[in-house]
Amino acid sequence: MSSGSLDMDPKGLLHVALDIDTVAHHLRAVEPLVADEIPPAPVIPPAPVVEWIDELPRITEELHQVADVIRTVVGSVSVTDDEMASRLARIGDG
Question: Quick count: other Cβ atoms within 10 Å of Cβ 69?
Answer without folding.
Answer: 12
